[in-house]
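re: ur question from earlier - yeah i can do the single chain one, its not a big deal. heres the input i used so u can compare w yours
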Amino acid sequence: MTADQLAHMTLKDLRALAAGRGVANSAKLKKDELVAALAQALSAERREPPAPAAAPAGSSAPPQSAQAWQPAPPEHGLPVPDAYGRDRLVLLVQDPSHVFAYWEVTPATLDRVRAEVGGHGAAVLVLHGPGGSEQREVDLAGGNYYLAVAPGSDYDAELCLRAADGRLVRLAGSNRIRTPAAGPSWRTDESWMEVDESFQDLLALAGVPGSIGSSMGSGSGQRFRNARQINVRPIGQEAEGSPVGIPPSVVWR
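and the output i got, formated as tokens:
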């Protein structure tokens, strides 16, 4: 792990890593001092492989050069950060009747808005929907909240602080979403042409080898004379003069 990678870690994770590497006074060091000390310790570990354990008395252990090579343990990637350092409020659809909201507010934005409302103020999640706006008091440190909504509707939200006079000051705004319908979709598939044994006649008409009624030895004119003519209509369309028992989609002549 390089010094640049260590610099992206939080102070808490750096101290935990330093304690595991035996860095002296890791709890009292600042972040830049911890990064430098950890980079030096990790570099020393890569340069100096651990000494082989002494063989028990009376054993005939092979020399180090004859022992099988063992790869170094893989490094685990950087830890997932607790925050990304930007103000945001995101809405995600969970199902037709529920929406999940999560947010992040930077300390600078929070301090600015608190100064504007004249104190800490209550955190309020304002949901804008087809029926108007609804306000829900939330725990700002919690970072997320579930909302009950109506199916098939458009929503967006704002995260605000409420001043003593009831005024709302915005911290972050969300994306706009649409909840799905609470029932089957009104869309239906297209009407498909009915397929029955006439498919074999079509293959024979095209001269496909192996099809029933195909005659590879005769000419195309002879095959057309022997094949029956097929008139295909969409399903549901009435065919005048259709024989009894024959679907209206396929009429033989």
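Residues 93 and 142 are 19 Å apart (CA to CA). not sure if urs matches, ping me
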